[in-house]
User: Fold these one by one.
Assistant:
Number 1:
Amino acid sequence: MAIDHVLKLYSETIQSPYLHYGFWDNPESINSDLLSIEEIVKAQERYIEHLSSFIPKDVNKIIDVGCGVGGNAAYLKEKGYEIDVLSPDLYQKEFINKKFNGEMRFYKTKFEDFKSDTTYDLILESESACYIKINKGFSAANRVLRDGGYLLAADYFVFNSNNQSPHLKSSHRMDQYLNAAKSSGFKLLKEYDQTENTMPTLDAALNFINRFVFPTAEYLQNSIQRKNPKTYRLLKSLLEKRISKKMDQLDLMSSEEFRKYRKYMIYLFQKV
Ligand SMILES: C[S@@+](CC[C@H](N)C(=O)[O-])C[C@H]1O[C@@H](n2cnc3c(N)ncnc32)[C@H](O)[C@@H]1O
């Protein structure tokens, strides 16, 4: 993978050091119509604070797998952990090198292909587990962890796969993931369901799209149609199918739909 342009878009628009959903302490009291970017970034800080509370006491050396733009790594470094980072993404590599003045060891590779002379106490997969092939990911985790080392994964998993929802395409099935962990020699020490704590961010993103992106797109469409009907007809014939596919994927941004199929879990495993 050269560059994941969706993640790059999030990084450049929200301008947050994090690419995850954030964690809301009292989700039932949040009005997602009114959330500011500043509040979302605060929730993202709270997310790594909460996630890092799962790191066992005997951990010092961590590899942050799927490190994004380095917010989690910076937080953990600040807390005194020794930390290396990994991602297959070129934009993220350049971003991290700049952010840490070249002082953060960055492995540009998919985790599945990662080989290292260093062994780690803990692998962090913060919203990156769903990108990593299940069995190859656990094999790589076995290779790079010391005996008794840990894998801390936070991500969304499908628990209900009864139909053709797009939710089933972008996540691992929970039962498959947990079975693969077990058969690869990983014992589940802790689990935490943080679905409700993450949903306000999804609601805020959908509100934003409905309020700003759709009306702007409609305005542009009307404007082109009026001023340049030929170009409009050409664009329509070229893009109609793609746009309709993207609209179907908007289902992924509905928290109601999310809850039907997925749970956002924290899993702490130990290599036994
Ligand atoms: C949603 S972002 C999460 C970023 C960061 N961990 C965070 O919490 O802000 C997913 C990350 O996984 C990375 N990724 C995608 N495929 C991967 C793979 N096969 N192995 C390792 N990382 C991968 C992406 O490039 C990105 O850094």
Note: The beta strands are 61-65, 82-87, 106-108, 120-126, 145-158, 172-173, 186-193, 262-271.
Number 2:
Amino acid sequence: MCIFCRIAAGELPASVVYEDEHAMAFLDIQPINPGHVLVIPKKHAKLLVDLPPEDAGHMMRVAQIVDRALRASELRCEGVNLFLADGRVAGQDVDHVHLHIFPRYDDDGFSLHIDEEMRKPPGRAQLDESAKMIVDAMDGLE
Ligand SMILES: [Zn+2]
């Protein structure tokens, strides 16, 4: 069983902030900021695409509850980031889908490094070409 399945089963300790039949939310043991929460589906799935759509939707509903609570709490929270690393190359460190939610505030030291070169607008033709590839792939989905 993976580490998050073991937390969901109550075999490993966690600082739980939310739990229902299908999902659980607990504090990340390596928080970016105080109040950094992970939302997981209780059923094991590696990737977001492996989750039944209702479980994916439920994960976002729980995220919204956590987001509201962070903003209402005494934790420093002037904004919130949601982050889901879907796959190892995307930064996924535990092979059980999980959504990071963490409070943000001025000068908290967190930033995403993005090269200026990556942010150069590619032009409409290339955008349309990428859009066509995605739409074509959608047509082939079940
Ligand atoms: Zn698992």
Note: The mean pLDDT is 96.
Number 3:
Amino acid sequence: MTTARHPDLPSRPVYLDHNATTPVDPRVLDAMLPALRGDFANPSSTHAFAAGPARLLAAARAEVAALLGARPEEIVLTGSGSEADALAVRGAALAAATRRGVRPHVITQVTEHPAVLAACEELRTRHGARITVLPVDAEGRVEPADVASAITADTVLVSVMHANNETGTLQPITEIAAVCRERGVLLHTDAAQSVGKVPVDVDALGVDLLTVVGHKMYAPKGVAALYVRRGVAVHPLVGGGGQEHGLRAGTENVPHAVALGAAARIARAELADGEGPRLADLRDRLAARLAGLLPGRVHVHGHPVHRLPGTLNVHIDGTVGHELLAATPDVAASTGSACHSGSHTPSAVLTAMGLPGTDALATLRLSLGRWTTQADVDLAAVLLAAGADGASA
Ligand SMILES: Cc1ncc(COP(=O)(O)O)c(C=O)c1O
């Protein structure tokens, strides 16, 4: 388990926004540097310079595959999670619809990341697809029976995220996968927020496509991957040089691929070393401290058990989330609202879970990570409670 301070992460403000992005692990940075120096060549070149980068790329792909229980050839590297989601949703739906000669029907659910919802919308407007958006319950979970009832003869793809980025709620993917398997429908899961935080194994989950995002697991921004189960057809979004098994043309970004591989290797070791329970304890300590300081005013959202260990989605009665964070500059976190040109609207995720607007606008997303300590969460609780007392005074 990592306990030393991150060299670039100050102790104040307390960084509790790991679901937005994680700091780069210094070990990841060290691992990628050779690919920015001597191993700079194009891995597809035929001369001697290419051997090093080609080896690094293959090793990185194998590390990502190992974290997911996949085969290296099932990993398609992309430039972002949004791109991986688009490749999965559009690419797999269109390929399956072409093969089956149907107008595609895709099932998703209301709390998906905008990357998935936008890919569905694109399928609808540009490709005439029919899209079903399933509801969630008060804890943010989809009912697998609802997936079963929504499947029709033309359903080609179901896309349900593994963990929600705002609440941390984990979806019942294994149960949904059983439904999809039985009905011959492909299943994609966006695991951007769960990979590296909880065990993620593509066979145990039973998924056909799975999104992994580097900057949520201590690699830099701008690298991600899509797991594509062997035999699943996907139409490419970008054609050209045939890289990434013909699914994503473009000279490979070897330094970032190496970073993702190193991040995957470290995540596997940290998971085995108890990082999940450590974060869950800190998350629960933070919630308990807040509740102790503000009796009766603290409400936690999301599933009480099936939830990411490091995510605390919480609202405090009598506060407005963005005002509380503005009054508490020593805590760096996110709110449950979206800000458009200065006006705040309640988060679509919380609204879909049935939260009243005022509660959603009061919500904070406090997300912990590899270098978060007990002292950090204790300090954050005291600072937020003081800010909340000020707000209600
Ligand atoms: C659940 C989820 N999916 C996809 C993405 C998009 O990843 P990227 O920022 O790499 O496009 C994010 C990032 O916020 C996310 O949380």
Note: The radius of gyration is 21 Å.
Number 4:
Amino acid sequence: MLKRHFASGNLLRILSLLGDSHLGPCRRIIRIRHHHHRRNFSHFSSSSTTTSSTKPADSPPRSKSDARGELRSWQIHAYSGIDDLQASTSRIPPIKSPTDVLIRVHASSINPIDIAMTRGYGADTLNLLRGLCSSEQSKGPFGLQSLKQLSLPFRRGATTIEFPLTLGRDFSGVIVQMGHEARGKHGLRVGDEVFGVVGVQRQGAHATYVISSIDTIRQKPKNMSFLEAAAIPYVGLTTWAAIRVTGAFSNLNGKRFLVLGGSGGVGTFAVQYLKSQGTHVVTTCSSEAEALMTSLGCDFVIDYKMQEFSEMVKHYSPYDCVLDLSGPTNYKKSLETIQYLKAVTGQYITLSPPFLSNMDKFGFLGGAAKNVGDLLNSNYQSWNKGQSVTKWAFFIPNGAPLENFTDLLQSKRIRPVIQESFKFDETKDAYKRVDDGHLRGKIMLDMEDYVNSN
Ligand SMILES: NC(=O)c1ccc[n+]([C@@H]2O[C@H](COP(=O)([O-])OP(=O)(O)OC[C@H]3O[C@@H](n4cnc5c(N)ncnc54)[C@H](OP(=O)(O)O)[C@@H]3O)[C@@H](O)[C@H]2O)c1
């Protein structure tokens, strides 16, 4: 029964929602740092990783660097935080699935999940997902390895298949090779400029090349630079997942949203997306972010540090939805806003559920049980306070909404908000910047130096 359930791919689909669980001439670039153009790439030493080419690619690599098969990436070798990030050079990995594509990365972004993953966030669950995915890919009898993994005590270090691990969930770049089933899908060909995401169980995009599924990329919006385009996919698809999938809002026109924490990477996209759909948006942020949030179209901006915070939130209520992007440390305070939701139909949707941290702490079965308990408990509270519903939302790697975003980006109804951009050599500084918090939009990695030098 369990095996049948797995074979159907249901567990894969559920797990792939986790953590997997981030214009035009633009664009609000608040501050872009300009750095010396370093060409010695001194961070990158050769690693012992070797790979051999496999079948399904439809054309040989094209640039000199491609021909050499060199992949430069930032990787962790243990879950000991940002300091463990190391630059390495290895062979470009082969495409293993016929629906995969190899992309030369021009730009990528850094998200809080990258920082959390350097510390082991979700490691056990993601390892299970990696194991399940490799079982599926090999098309061997599915179940034995996975069931064995499931029955193992879910302890950190029980599996080590993830290292060295490259982080980075979204990117923009150029298609270099395609698996045979990927060719022509979604109108994409070798040489096309694309943007998209890579599933959280895969090697990430903080590298000069990334392998992604054809189904999680689309043509890059024509009016955007690579840097601007790479600021959209992860936060956009997270927003889509929270509002359209978890919230199941089909028509947002005239709805009232309270967005807690609108000033960060997800928030600066989410409020613009909601406004583009005719939604009434009230957001909370620090006082110094108020001007930015107003410029993004918010109807009312509330400083979350002000004394009258609750009265202000109440003043603009009732809301159809509270979208909580303010992070896990504010969860308890954020939950208080459920009393200002519309009764019965109101929804509190958080992007910081304890799902993966419960799995980390209590193992697969214990964590699953704790998750059910936590979700029931928060729903009990929200039902008591306002007869509303509490839901947990996760990033979903799905290319289709990117087409919708492209329309909005090309018509300039949404613009990327980039706080700061770092060169690829400065990746560690970029991670530190995200870890420092208080972000106003996105922190980006600009890899053009590497593209142009090869
Ligand atoms: N479940 C998922 O799949 C998923 C996917 C993406 C993101 N997330 C989570 O969603 C959250 C938002 O992501 P992000 O990328 O937008 O993070 P971010 O870029 O770090 O932004 C967080 C923003 O919230 C503000 N903030 C902090 N405390 C606040 C409070 N009490 N009230 C209002 N605003 C507050 C911060 O600025 P100040 O500190 O200066 O106020 C910052 O602008 C993060 O916790 C992230 O981990 C989850």
Note: The pocket of NAP is lined by residues 19, 21, 111-113, 238, 260-261, 263-267, 284-286, 304, 325-327, 330, 351-352, 393-395, 437-439 (CB under 6 Å).
